[in-house]
Amino acid sequence: MNNHIDNKIKAYPIWSRDNTKLLLAFIFTVIIVYIFPKLGVPQILIKLSFLLLLFIIFNSKNDVFWLSWYILIVNAISRMFMIGTADNIYRIPMYSIMSGVSLGFHELFLAMYIIKYLLMNNKRHSLFNKYTIFILIYGAFTIFYSFFWGISQSTLIRSIRTVLPWFWLIILPAFFSNPEKVEHSFQLIAPFVFVCFILSIYSQITGRYLHDILSGESRIGYLGEAEIELVRSVHSTFLIFPIVFLALFYLGMGKIKFNYIYLNLIIITGTLIIILSATRGWIIAFLILLSSFFFMKGSDLIKQLIRVFVILSLIIFIVQLFYPLFLFQLSKAYERFMTLEQLVEGDPTAGGSLLRITERGPRVMKEFRKSPIIGWGFSDHYFRFRDIHVGNQTMLLQGGILGYLFWMIIYFMILYKIYSYGQYNYNKLYLGNNVNIILLAMVASFVIHCSSTHIWGFYGSGQEVILQWAFILTTANAYLTTTR
Predict the structure, then answer these.
(1) Cα distance between residue 161 and residue 254, in whole Å
(2) What element of type H or E holds 77?
């Protein structure tokens, strides 16, 4: 524990010069990816510009800024930047290495930061580094035994791409090594929750994501007609989650790091985005996150609930003026969420809206039973039958009973580490009940894994999934290991 925080509390402005720079960097990224191709700029120049950017970032000392920019880009706001294969010109570049093998900019970015981490002087090791090393070793072992089940060259490459993003659990805490850096990153990315909200409404009105509109393609297709049906605009959830988590964390500190009304605006706006997505597992997860309100003292809780009611009412009133179907869409999302009542009453399909229990889960478990002890590893068989919608079953398919136990032991060891460090007197004095908010974020993330999307364990999802876990653990590490 070698960092030190002054007793003087630093209050951050809502907007700073760095916020302006990040917004301009984001807009410029949109222009390069979507406008330059339409202007006839050769793809080779666009690809070289991103390679030049990697060189600039590698030599930059402003890692908080560039990592914050990357978190925005990799989370594909309104499905931008990451849609399509290597030959799609409207995406962050991919670079062909050989026939059938390409490296994406996001993979080069990760590799660059692995090198940057290894070259760091005076590395500050995270509380959770050893668990990440266990994960990486287990990943290498899984690749090794997958050869016995049959693994093609393309599947081997996919397997490596599945394991390497877990390095973020080491990298992000090293570069966001103290509370000030976490707070600065939050200051930078938090306003984008409002960008995501506006684009969610825009997607409902137009029935299309911004990617399809800017590119002129129809990669995702028509989402629906807002006047007659629920239009599910689902994007950037792995960006919204850490932003809302950190807003709750700073709200619960009782020390004015950020304006209380601003934090509440972030929490309510982010929650509305998730509700509009009508994704039941994510809504449950956010309800768990929001239960952190109840760790406040009696009078503070009442004040907080009043703030939430007033701000929520104002947001609904203002949005309804410009988008009269807003309440209708909220009600349709609520109807979909309440189909869980039918699940509780014994209908495993939740009124025909749920396939996880009756179709997806059994299909994966059928293959798991053919190799129940060690699973199918990263074999071709695994990738053929995996299913992102059934997280626990896919974990069993991949690692068998032993692999599942490995991941659950790691998960509970991390929970215990956070809890035990939270019991230290200086952490109790400084953070109060905020350790519980970190634990709730861990639990809420696992609820997403169990009910909506495979995010714990090896699946092959994008780096944004791992970055959600990394953000939670980075926050825990920065605040629990800092002397005061």
Answers:
(1) 41
(2) none
Q: How far apart are the first and last CA of the chain?
A: 10
Measured over the CA atoms of residue 24, residue 26, residue 31 and residue 32, the dihedral's sign is positive
Instruction: Single out the residue of 85, 82, 105 nearest to residue 95, CA to CA.
Output: 105
355 by Cβ neighbours in 10 Å (0-12 / 13-18 / 19+) ranks as: middle
Q: In this predicted model, what pLDDT tens digit does every residue of 225-252 receive, in sequence order?
A: 767 778 888 888 999 999 999 999 998 8
Residues in the chain: 484
Residues 393, 362: Cα–Cα separation, whole Å: 9
Cα four-point dihedral sign 37, 42, 43, 48: negative
Provide mean pLDDT across the span 12-31. Answer: 94
For every residue of 401-420, DSSP letters joined together read HHHHHHHHHHHHHHHHHHHH
Domain spans of the chain?
127-175+351-484
220 has a pLDDT exceeding 70? no
pTM, entire model? 0.91
109-148 tens-digit pLDDT:
999 999 999 998 887 788 999 999 999 999 999 999 999 9
Output the CA angle 467-448-286, nearest 5 degrees: 90
Q: Residue 289 has which token pair? A: 């996150």
Average pLDDT of 145-156? Answer: 90
- Rg over CA atoms, the chain: 22
